[in-house]
Amino acid sequence: MAAAAVASTARWGRVRAGVMEAARLRCQRGGSRLGRLSVLPSAAGDVAQWRHVAHFTFHPDPENRQYGQTQKMNLFQSITSALDNSLAKDPTAVIFGEDVAFGGVFRCTVGLRDKYGKDRVFNTPLCEQGIVGFGIGVAVNGATAIAEIQFADYIFPAFDQIVNEAAKYRYRSGDLFNCGGLTIRAPWGCVGHGALYHSQCPEAFFAHCPGIKIVVPRSPFQAKGLLLSCIEDKNPCIFFEPKILYRAAVEQVPVEPYYIPLSQAEVLQEGSDVTLVAWGTQVHVIREVASMAQEKLGVSCEVIDLKTILPWDIDTVCKSVAKTGRLMISHEAPLTGGFASEISSTVQV
Amino acid sequence: MRKMLAIVSRVLTGASQKPAGRVLLAARNFANDASFDIKKCDVHRLEDEPPTTAVLTREEGLKYYKIMQTVRRMELKADQLYKQKIIRGFCHLYDGQEACCMGLEAGINPTDHVITAYRAHGFTYTRGLPVREILAELTGRRGGCAKGKGGSMHMYAKNFYGGNGIVGAQVPLGAGIALACKYNGKDEICLTLYGDGAANQGQIFEAYNMAALWKLPCIFICENNRYGMGTSVERAAASTDYYKRGDFIPGIRVDGMDVLCVREATKFAAAYCRSGKGPMLMELQTYRYHGHSMSDPGVSYRTREEIQEVRSKSDPIMLLKDRMVNNNLASVEELKEIDVEVRKEIEDAAQFATADPEPPLEELGYHIYSREPPFEVRGANQWIKYKSVS
Questions:
Q1: Which of A48, A51, A193 shows the shortest C-beta gap to B89?
Q2: Considering the domain boundaries, does residue B22 fall inside one?
Q3: How far is CA A82 from the centre of its chain?
Q4: In the CATH hierarchy, which fold is given to the domain comprising A266-348?
Q5: Given an 8 Å threshold on Cβ–Cβ distance, is A35 in contact with B167?
Q6: Which domain holds residue B280?
Q7: pLDDT value, residue B29
Q8: Nearest-5° Cα angle at A141, A135 to A146
Q9: Which residues contact A248 (CB under 8 A, 6 or more apart)?
Q10: Which Gene Ontology MF annotations are present (chain A) (predicted)?
Q11: pLDDT in tens for each of the 349 residues of chain A?
């Protein structure tokens, strides 16, 4: 867990130690579904010396019946459902990327080509810069472009297209043109065996760029609603899907389309002592930490899922910190220049 | 009856005397070398062509056979270890393509440079690393060539720059290495390899342009195994004549299943580059038996019949073996002995790779920067610090 701490009262010292202790206990508990637990205790027995394969418990939300009939879906199925709804509703919507035709390497586009035709769901060659550039062109011309980058780690050849072309199109043309119809989807985050190039979380690189929106869901129900909102949104959006949740996260998800608003963080659990903020997979980790902290140390944590990284919901986070007085942010990406630094510096001001 | 008994007993005693048998084999007259017809290469923008005959000496033949068999068995052992979950993560196997790495190595000098993508185990071996270090790197142990920190896709050796995970990213690097070769003036060249999938990446064309403009001694080699992960070449490329894709760069299309064809073409291309005429493009038409990686069964986008056909008609090791045996360069028994030797070497290496300890946790932060003295790196939270030594 990366962390940025705020305020340093004596009580904060205890709370901080407490939450870290809870995290250490959680790591110790082990119970990995996702690989061997290989643990090397050092002579010092410090938490730094514990090594473990990624493990966490997915916390499903209670079934939401306000959008009609629901069905049990995991994350990739909820994505497929969202894309299905999109293509059904919007005749200009097209999906493209590497290997999406047969269903995608994570099965997010299974069945769509058969249902909507090969002119709407098609493969591109291996060229990320080309995929995004092409997607911008499709969107500028008024169609809805849903581009897939096979792994977020491969998004960097397209970085120029996203930052320089997509993000600034509306501004530089004085609102004459825009590529708001573009949504880029990419599997994101650690999965346990991904190593350097199948585990990255690049949201911080893109957060530095005005003109785009970045969204990271924590669960299938959230994913479908947020993805549909991204596709509807009149700005280019990047939608990062935590790949470790594709199969691991199973929830009841409405079959019909529904929209979860962007740029609104959600308070998952009210608390009074410390605010914990995370997004994507980490939300489940901090939920566990929050319950352990309450159980073992009597610390009451307020848990917030940020959901939209850019533009992020400053009000909800600041209101929460004003109440609790302490903030801890946790994300998978490297600490230096990670999005936690943006949140913590804004909150401190 | 007695005569038959005598014959039978003689045969039986003969069979038990192995050393005598071996002496008999050595005494047998093998040819020193033989000349073979090899497939003509298609060329693009070239007046000359690589030769259509190749001479293979007995010594060379045995060497190529042993190396290719080692690569084959090493990849199959890696497959086995992966299924036993001793190797984790990503593993892209090279079996079927052995003639490419062997032929290329035979056509260049050890002082020349090679860079390739992630299907790199074969090249790591032909560039000089022992099997045990390769397998130990796959299992992530400290005896591995990258100290257990690189894994399957990041293996390096002297004059071998890996081992690169991002598709196509190694090609501009290869052009840069070629620039250094030209600058240093030591008559070295660089082989820059990529696959049929990577051939559609934009940065490759940027590298072509730079190499041709500055006449860099770079051989761009497209290992066309017909499938970019699960996409066949017809569905990915507007032009599947990969040897022509360099446009202004001359190209050759080579039968990548025949080690002699690859070797002759490489010698031809290397001579061209060394003479200062600029880069050349080689397309090696080859095939991989395994899927793209260990998580790909390899049969959802191609038929088992196709794989079987290639195995039975164009297997590179089989082709070499048949040539050698039919032209009296070696005997079947001799090659079988080599097989046994290779198997033993691989077994030992696998033993080592399984038993070697993992790198210690203290080394997690090493080699991030080059910095003296050692400094501290933050771990997963600000109270965990790793020492970074370089």
A1: A193
A2: no
A3: 16
A4: Rossmann fold (3.40.50)
A5: no
A6: 38-378
A7: 84
A8: 30
A9: A33, A34, A58, A74, A75
A10: branched-chain 2-oxo acid dehydrogenase activity
A11: 333 333 334 455 555 655 666 555 554 443 333 333 333 333 333 333 344 455 788 999 999 999 999 999 999 999 999 999 999 999 999 999 999 999 999 999 999 999 999 999 999 999 999 999 999 999 999 999 999 999 999 999 999 999 999 999 999 999 999 999 999 999 999 998 888 899 999 999 999 999 999 999 999 999 999 999 999 999 999 999 999 999 999 999 999 999 999 999 999 999 999 999 999 999 999 999 999 999 999 999 999 999 999 999 999 999 999 999 999 999 999 988 999 999 999 999 7
Give the number of A-B residue pairs with CB atoms closer than 8 Å: 75
Which chain A residue has the Cα nearest residue B199?
A126
Q: Which residues of B touch A126 (CB under 8 A)?
A: 167-168, 197-198, 200-201, 228, 236
Name the residue among B45, B148, B35, B157 with its Cα closest to residue B101: B157
- β B231-232/B227-228 pair status: antiparallel
Superfamily per CATH, domain A70-254: Thiamin diphosphate (ThDP)-binding fold, Pyr/PP domains (3.40.50.970)
A198 is catalytic: yes
Name every residue whose Cβ is closer than 8 Å to that of residue A26 and which is 6 or more positions away in sequence. A285, A288, A289, A292
Chain B: residue whose CA lies nearest to A50: B361
A3, A123, A125: residue with CB nearest B382: A3
Answer whether A13's CB lies under 8 Å from A349's CB. no
- Among A21, A59, A198, A266, the active-site one is A198
Euclidean distance between CA atoms A223 and B155, whole angstroms? 38
Burial of A312 (0-12, 13-18, 19+ CB in 10 A): buried
The answer to whether domain A70-254 and domain A266-348 are alike in fold is yes
Enter the pTM of the model: 0.84
Q: Do A101 and B231 form a contact (C-beta atoms < 8 A)?
A: no
The candidate with the shortest Cα–Cα distance to B156, out of B134, B186, B178, is B134
Q: Beta-carbon neighbour count of residue A310 at 10 Å?
A: 22
For B231, the closest of A36, A123, A154 (CB atoms) is: A123
Q: CB–CB of A125 and B381 under 8 A?
A: no
Domain locations in chain A as residue ranges: 70-254, 266-348
Nearest to A20 among B167, B201, B383 (CB): B383
Number of domains within chain B:
1
Q: Is residue B388 part of a domain?
A: no
Number of Cα atoms under 13 Å in the Cβ half of residue A90: 21
- Residue A112 near residue A83 (C-beta atoms within 8 A): yes
User: Is residue B386 in a domain?
Assistant: no
Strand-strand pairing, A93-97 and A301-305: unpaired
Q: Is B14 part of a structural domain of the chain?
A: no
Residue A251 annotated in active site = no
Mutate to test the interface with B, among A6, A99, A126 (most CBs of B within 10 A): A126
For residue B293, the domain's CATH number is 3.40.50.970
Secondary structure string (H, E, C) spanning B288-334: CCCCCCCCCCCCCCCCHHHHHHHHHHHCHHHHHHHHHHHCCCCCHHH
Count of beta carbons in the 10 Å neighbourhood of residue A214: 25
